User: Fold these one by one.
Assistant:
Number 1:
Amino acid sequence: MISLHRSCFLNNAGISGSSSPFSYKLKKLPPASVKVTALAPNKDRNSSVLIENSHPLEEIKDVTSSIADVDPNSTVSFEEPEVSYDDAASDDQLVTPWSLSVASGYALLRDPHHNKGLAFNEKERDAHYLRGLLPPTVISQDLQVKKLMHSIRKYQVPLQKYMAMMDLQELNERLFYKLLINNVEELLPVVYTPTVGEACQKYGSIFRRPQGLFISLKEKGKIREVLRNWPQRNIQVIVVTDGERILGLGDLGCQGMGIPIGKLSLYTALGGVCPSACLPVTIDVGTNNEKLLNDEFYIGLRQRRATGQEYAELMHEFMTAVKQTYGEKVLIQFEDFANHNAFDLLAKYSTTHLVFNDDIQGTASVVLAGLVAALKVVGGTLADHRFLFLGAGEAGTGIAELIALEISKQTNMPLQEARKKISLVDSKGLIVKSRMESLQHFKKPWAHDHEPIKNLVDAVKEIKPTVLIGTSGVGRTFTKEVVEAMAALNEKPVIFSLSNPTSQSECTAEEAYTWSQGRAIFASGSPFDPVEYNGRVFVPGQANNAYIFPGLGLGLIMSGAIRVHDDMLLAASEALAARVTQENFDKGLIYPPFRNIRKISAHIAANVAAKAYELGLATRQPQPQDLVKYAENCMYNPAYQSYR
Ligand SMILES: O=C([O-])CC(=O)C(=O)O
Ligand SMILES: [Mg+2]
C-alpha cells in the first residue's frame, strides 16, 4: 500500500456542513467511480456521514483541484490502493482513487503544516480535540516569534542555531517562515551560507529526520515511484544537487542535501513560493570524498561516484520523471554540481525543460546587478571597464558571459569583441590562446591573444583591471599584494570576493578595506560584518544569488513560463540594481538591504514575468496588468490561518 499524506481543508471546497480539519476518504468502486466518505471529528469522531457517495473519477479530480485553488497553502494527501505501476495504463489510474486525510488532536500538534502550538485558540482547541494536550495559555504568533528569537540568540554556536531552525521547520512550518521573514538579516547566515556549509559537512552526525527526497543509484528504474512517495503533488520548484561541489567545500556526496533544503526555504521566505510547492532533491551517485566514505555516520551510498553513461542515465530518468509527474512548468534549479556536469546538464535540458543553474546564471545575474550599481559610484559604462576573474568555473564564466552579453546589448558591439574586455585566471594561470587545446569547453571563449601569465598578481599588473572578481572556491587568494596592486591602479577598485562559505572567500571585508586604504567597492558571497577603518564604517555588500533566484523563480511560476531565457536573467539583474536607493549609495551600499527582500523579489518577479510574456514564453493568460502587485498577491504568507 502506497500512502501519500496530503492534508487539506475542504471548508471552502464546496462540501457543505463540515469544518476542518477532518478526514476524507475515497474508496475504489468498480469501475470508474469512487466512494467518498468524510469524517467530521468535531461532531462525532467515528461518524462518517457527511459525504458518502459514489463519484465519477472526473468529479473527484475536480474536488481535489478546487481544494488546491481555494487554498494553495493546503497540503492534501492521497492514499493509493494496491495498484501496480506496471499494470497501470495511465497516470489517472496511478493517482486515483485517493484518500485525503487531515490530522486532528494529538496528530495535529505533530503536523508541521498545520500545527500552531500554543497559538491554537479556545475554539480551535475544542473543535480539534486539543483540550488537555496543550497548557492553558493561548499566545499570539508574534509572541511565539519573540520567544524563539530569544532562545535562538542564546546559542553561541552557529550550527546549534541551524539545528534549532531545522527542528522548528519540522515542528511548525508557518512559525519557521514567520521567524525567518521577520528576522531575515539575522537568520539568513544560519539557514544559508555560511552555516549551511558546516551543516552539510556534518550532516551525517546531526541527521535527525530526513528532509527532501533522496534519489540514489538504488532507485534507478523507479524514479517515478519515488516521486510519488513525496507527500505533495502540486510541485512548482525543485532544487536538485548531486553534491559534487557544495559551495566551495567540494564533494560532500549525499550530505549536500542541506543545500536544496536551504535554497528552497529561501524560495518561500524571500520569494513567497508556497512551501508545499517546493521539493528538495539530492541525487546520490556516490562520492569521491574519502573522509565521508570512511565516516561511519555517512548517510549516502558508500561507493565512488558513478560517471559517464551511468550518471547520464540516472539524471535523464530523473528529468523525464519530473516532467511526467509535475508537467512542463515545474522549475528545476540545478545547484552545486561540479563544472563538468553543470554546463552539460544545463545545455542538454534547457531546450526541453524549465531549468536554471543557480551557480552559473543566478550568480551572474546578482553580480551584474552589483556592477551596474557600482558604476554609479565609480563612473563609466560597463564597456569602459576591464574585468579580471580568479576562477573560471560555473560562476566565473557565467558572470563573464552575462557581462559580455550586456555590454554587447548596450553598445551593439559583437559578443566576441565584448568578451575581450574580460580575462580569466584559473589554477594554471591566465586563460590564453596558447592553452586552447587543453581547455575545457566552457573556458574556450575566454582564451584571448596574450602571453601566458602564471599568477594573479602579475595578471593584475599586466591587464590593469578596474574590477576584480573571485570565483575560485579557494580562500585567501586575494592577498595583500593583489589588493594593493588593484588599489595602485584604481581610485576606487571594485573587488568582489564571491566564494562560499566565509572560509573560502578570496579575502575578507576587513582585508579589502584595509589594504585599499578604504577605497575598495567590496562585495562578498557570504556575509561579513561592517568594518571600521580610519574612523569610517564600511558596510560590505553580499553579492549572493539569494537576491535573485527566489524572485526569478516566482516570476517564472506566476507567468507559467516554460523556458528560461538569458534576457530574463538580465531583466532580474536590472530589477535588482534598480532597488538600490540613493540612501543605500550614500552608505556605500551597492545592494539593497536584505530586510526588504520580499519587495525586491516582487520587482524581480515582475520584470522576469514581463520578459517571459514579451518573449512568448509565458502560458498564463491573460497577462496580469500590474505584475508587481500580482507577484505580491501570489506570495505565501506565514501568518496562521484560522481553522474555524
Ligand atoms: O549558496 C550560496 O551561498 C551561493 C551559491 O550558490 C554557491 O556558493 O554555490
Ligand atoms: Mg550554489
Number 2:
Amino acid sequence: MRTPVIAGNWKMHKTAAEALSFVDEVKRTTLPADVEAVLCAPYLALPALAEATQGTDIGIGAQNVHWEEQGAYTGEVSVPMLKAAGVQYVIIGHSERRAYFAETDETVNKKTRAALDGGLTPIVCVGETLAEREADKTKEVVQTQVKAACAGLSSAEMKRTIIAYEPVWAIGTGKASTAADAEEVCAFIRKTVADLYDQQVANEVRIQYGGSVKPENIRSFMAEPNIDGALVGGAALKADSFIQLVQAASAGE
Ligand SMILES: O=C(CO)COP(=O)(O)O
C-alpha cells in the first residue's frame, strides 16, 4: 500500500529560529509511523531543520530548486546544495511559482529530472485555475501538466515522484475542494500515469491533495482511495495543527 505523505509548505514564512521552535514542539510528540511527515521550509531554515530532525522520521523539503548543478544563475540553489544541507524532498512547480516566477511545464520537467538525478524526492504540483475549472478544462489542464512534468522519467523514477493536485482556487482561500471532486481529479491523474506507464506504476505513485486542508477536513480527503496525503500551507504553520494533520492521516486514526 502507498504510505501517505503529509507535507507542510511553509512558503515565505519562518526564520531558522522559528523553524527550530516548531520542530522542538513536534519532537515532543510521537508521530504515527505509517505516515511520512515532511516540512518544506525556506532555504535559510533548511540546514538547521535538517540537523534538528536527524534521527527522527520527519523529512525536510525545499520549495524550489534550479535544474543545473552549478553556474552563473544569480539567486538560485541547486540539487547538490540541497542534498549537502540534508534535504530529501523538493516542491516543484507550485502554482505560486508558475504564476509569479514564470515557471513553465518545461522548467518543471527540468527540475523534476534534476531532483530525481540528484536523489531528491520531487513533489510536483499541478492544478487548474478557477477560470479553467469554470470552462470545464480541469482534466485537460491537469493531464497536460502531469505529462509535461513527467516526460522522460523511467518507471522507477515515476514511482519515486509525488504528485500534488492543488486547484489554484482552493489555495489559501479557505475554500477547499470537496473530497469527492478532489478524488475525481486524483483518480484521473492516476489513470493518466497508468496510460503513460502501466497500472503497477500508477498504483505506486503517491498523489496528494492541496488547497485549504485543515485538521477539520483532512479526514474527508484521506478517506478517498486515490488521495495519499496532503500538501498544506496555512494549517502547517503551527506545530499543533501540523501534528493533528499527520495523526489524522494515520490508518490507526
Ligand atoms: O499551496 C498550498 C500548499 O502548497 C496550500 O495552501 P493552503 O493550505 O494555505 O491553502
